[in-house]
Amino acid sequence: MKETLKSLWQELLGDSVRAFGVVSLVLLVSLAIAPAKNHFSEWRRYQQGYLKLIRNRSDAVTLQRHFQGGIQQIWLPDLGVVDRCTSCHVGLKEASLNDVNVQPFRPHPAIPHKLDQFGCTMCHRGQGAATTVAEAHNSTLAWEQPILPTKYIESSCGECHHEPLAGAPRLNQGRQLLSRYGCVHCHTVKLPDGKIVKPTDDPPSLEHIADKTTREWIYAWLKDPQAYASTATMPNFKLSDDDARDMSAFLIANSTPAPGDTIALSTKASSDAAAGASLYGESFCASCHAVQNAAGNMVGGDIGPELTRIGNKVRPQWLQAWLRNPRAYDSGTSMPHYRFNDEQVATLSGFLLAKTDSDLLASVHLDAATPERIARGKRLVSDYGCVSCHEIAGIKKPENFAPELSRVGSKPVTQIVFLSDMPHTLPDYIAGKIRQPRAFSSGLKMPQYSFTPAEIDSLTTALLALNERSTTLPRSLNVSTTPESNYEPAGKAGKLMTDLACFSCHRINGRGGDMAPDLSWEGSSVQRDWLVKFLKNPGTLRPALIRRMPRFNLTDSEVNELTDYLMTVYQNPAIDSDSMPLSGYSQGEVELGKQLFYGKYSCQACHIVDTKNDKGYIGPTLTQAGSRLAAAWTYQWLKNPQALRPGTIEPNRAMGDEDARAITAFLMSQKSGDKKKVAKK
Amino acid sequence: MTRHNLGPVKFLVVLLATSAVTSCSHKSESAPLPKPTAFGAAIVESTGGKQTAQTGARLPQPLVVQVNDEQGNAVSGALVQFAAALGVTFDPPSGLADSGGQVTTNISLGERAGHYQIIASSYDRSHKKVELRVEEIALGYQQTLGRHLADQYCERCHNPESTVAQVSNYDNLEVKPHPFTEGETFNQISDADLTAVISHGGPALNKSALMPPWGNTLSKSDIQALISYIRAVSDPPYVPTS
């Protein structure tokens, strides 16, 4: 071996000329490495492939003219974007390549942003400055963020857009779930503009829980909330029998009677099921509460709790007191204070108490609560963070009970402990954590939710949007949410509106629900007499609607109080109610309006005026429009509906003054009790 | 001595190679296919075809197929495998027909918008392949926005099917609107004509005035999004003419 080396040395570097020659040669070769590497680089190969692809196409000339060789780069210093992706993805802007199905040559699908203004990595992540496939797409030692899988792509929209976005349903759903399922009770989520995300569920206070339900029910509920109500938003804490036993003991022992003499009020629950069902229907309980029918489908809304097995849960006296006035037990409830009389309370409570599942509590037999068990229960209630959501006397709400999630979308992968069968990426970790939170280590407290895979994808999308980069982007890109206003109606009428929980369904001045019409301009839009009648006995305006305004059994003075307030306070400044009369239009005008209504504008597609011939039921029925609507409102509405109610689906017909006046005249001629037939069109 | 030195190096190389081979083989090795206990003669679709979902997302409902014998009776125990273009994933990718002859899989579509053909296949007694082809539709950003707008403004009249939450107005209309899936109709109408009829109402194409104009309510890009959605759900599929 030594000999061979020696002779090799002699051969190559034996004398100075030889050495010089060899060294020069080595130098030359090493100098050639860099250009060669460049010549054989991936992006060049792709660009050659692209040219070959377009060569024989009919649009080759245009495509060739657009093509620019060499490394391409989108540089946007404001956004921190240095993207060279277009070096290989050469056809991104060529819509005519739509039929091409091979990457990296597909054109970019239509999106609302321009590539030159946002680059690629703003949405797709990955390493923009890289010029090889592996470095650009995958995580490397020097770069952690790989390309974002398509199913999470909407998370990037969410870095700037904090408001609901029509084209990003997964992001919207994820955000809604974060609030609806109360994730943000335990995990703080602070948006880049400093706003804290608020929960939209309303977990009840447990201070008087013994009034409402039994220890057995609490036990069954703690063990498996979804067994009681499949729509329950409370997660499963996977408690042992002993834990649930002791926690239920504590909650009952810790409960104090609600103020007010509720039990003395109780009447005997009626067993008239038919009357109960009809009162349940008439009161439109199903607008907010769901019940699972025999076919397994949920029927009803999700504002209030599901009532399928309510008879297993509530104490009869509590239910009756609640039906009589829910605000006596919970002043902040979204349930309206129906003015039910004793008979109605008996009927409705009887109907609801019959909704039971004989299996639910059949196997629950709890040992008596001892002081030790109660003490242990208290410790567990405190440990599991029950007070993050529920008010419980004697336990203080913990600060930062769970990790803050405001930057979870840029959690370093190196800090994550993955499960053994899990791809090592952040989205997989977040999704896995939501799917099976307790699997990551023993002793974790995060409960088990029963989200569907699609919901987990949506939640992951929403969480990935909460990242470091979203805080460093220019403020001008930030599209904030409009915060829910804290508008409070004033005076006696205001108190009445709170008591009736108007805001649970109606929106006024930026506050309230979206089930029923926005009432911000109600005073300008309707006539006083109609409103009085409607509040006394709400009829239906929209034939196809199943959720309707319930009857609250208001007294005359309450109706007057409310009407006066609505009519005077909720006025649109742009509408002068004196500018158009309610009657006195000429027969010619009315006739012209009718022709326009049925002909040019074909309003009967959605509205009914003549109940014999018209069938459209998308918009409200207009049979009594002349007794219900204000003329000036009608006129302005016809000219531009969205100006009065943004987002309403009635199309803006850009109606001229004359047409709008004529149709107003025709609609004002439709008075209630006025049997004057509307001649066939 | 040199030979002696090479020993550990060789050992290391061998170790690296074997570990590479084992790790590779571990990766490529998918779950072993279950052994079929029966064979059918045909696969038919039960539910789950012609669904739409966003690109990369799971279809809202699983695909359920059924294996039948020559007489059309369900066969349990036959092996069904699912396949599709790159990027489509199945959960599970294969399965044995249950007691009702059915196999269920959840499908996530690929990252490209458009139609995806799903192939469910099985073998009959003579080891001949039997197949079922089902189509699913992936919506990109523009089509998703279009779907949102269609739900809000159009479907109440254009979709004849009523649900509890959304009662259809279709039956109330004297001149019936065309459901958006009706390819025979929509594929004949150019983008320009569709834009005109959406913006200016039915009369723009000499059609019913019951279709109102939306040009003052929807933006140009909204209308474009709507058209791209209508094109996406068209059955038979829309083929651009240019």
Query: What is the CATH architecture descriptor of the largest domain in chain B?
Result: Sandwich
The total number of structural domains of chain A is 6
Please report the first level of CATH classification, the CATH class of the largest domain in chain B: Mainly Beta
How do the strands line up in the largest sheet of chain B?
Answer: 2-9-8-4-6
CATH topology of the largest domain in chain B: Immunoglobulin-like
Tally of strands of chain B: 9
Query: Can you count the helices of chain B?
Result: 5
Amount of helix of chain A: 40-55%
Number of helices of chain A: 31
Query: How far do the termini of chain A sit from each other?
Result: 112 Å
Residue share in β-strands of chain B: 15-25%
> What value does the Rg of chain A take, in angstroms?
34 Å
What structural class is derived from the secondary structure elements of chain B? Answer: alpha+beta
Order of helices and strands of chain B: HEEEEEEEEEHHHH
- Please give the number of β-strands of chain A: 6
* Average pLDDT of chain A: 90
Termini separation of chain B comes to 76 Å
- Average per-residue pLDDT of chain B, rounded, comes to 85
Side by side, the strands of the main sheet of chain A go 1-2
CATH topology of the largest domain in chain A: Cytochrome Bc1 Complex, Chain D, domain 2
Notes on the protein architecture:
The complex is a heterodimer of chains A (681) and B (242). Chain A is mostly helical. Chain A has 6 domains: 2-39, no CATH class; 42-147, no CATH class; 169-200 and 404-477; 209-379, Cytochrome Bc1 Complex, Chain D, domain 2 (Orthogonal Bundle); 495-569, Orthogonal Bundle (Cytochrome Bc1 Complex, Chain D, domain 2), CATH 1.10.760.10; 577-668, Cytochrome Bc1 Complex, Chain D, domain 2. Chain A has 31 helices and 6 strands. Chain A has helices at 2-13, 16-39, 42-55, 60-66, 115-118, 121-124, 133-137, 154-157, 169-180, 183-186, 209-212, 215-223, 225-228, 241-254, 273-282, 310-313, 316-324, 342-353, 371-383, 426-435, 453-464, 468-472, 491-499, 522-525, 528-536, 556-569, 587-598, 625-628, 631-639, 641-644, 657-668; strands at 74-76, 81-83, 290-292, 298-300, 507-508, 511-512. In chain A, the strands form 3 sheets. Chain A has a two-stranded antiparallel sheet. A two-stranded antiparallel sheet of chain A has the order 3-4. Chain A has a two-stranded antiparallel ribbon with strand order 5-6. In chain A, strand 1 and strand 2 form a beta hairpin. In chain A, helix 14 (241-254) crosses helix 19. Chain A starts with a helix and ends in a 13-residue tail after the last helix. The model of chain A is unreliable at 674-681 (pLDDT under 50). Chain B has 242 residues and is of the alpha+beta class. Chain B has 2 domains: 42-139, Immunoglobulin-like, CATH 2.60.40; 141-233, Cytochrome Bc1 Complex, Chain D, domain 2 (Orthogonal Bundle), CATH 1.10.760. Chain B is built from 5 helices and 9 strands, in the order αβββββββββαααα. Chain B has helices at 2-28, 141-158, 183-186, 191-200, 220-233; strands spanning 42-47, 52-54, 63-68, 79-83, 89-91, 94-96, 102-108, 114-123, 129-139. In chain B, the strands form 2 sheets. Chain B has a 5-stranded mixed sheet with strand order 2-9-8-4-6. Chain B is elongated and about 60 Å long. Chain B starts with a helix and ends in a 9-residue tail after the last helix. In chain B, 33% of the residues are buried. Mean pLDDT of chain B is 85; it is low at 1-29. Chain A binds chain B through residues 1, 98, 101, 106, 109-112, 149-153, 166-170, 299, 453-454, 457, 544, 546, 599-602, 604-606, 615-618, 642, 649, 651-654, and chain B through 2, 54-58, 60, 106, 108, 110-113, 140-142, 144-145, 148-149, 152-153, 156-157, 164, 167, 169, 171-173, 208-214, 216-217, 221, 224-225, 228, 240.
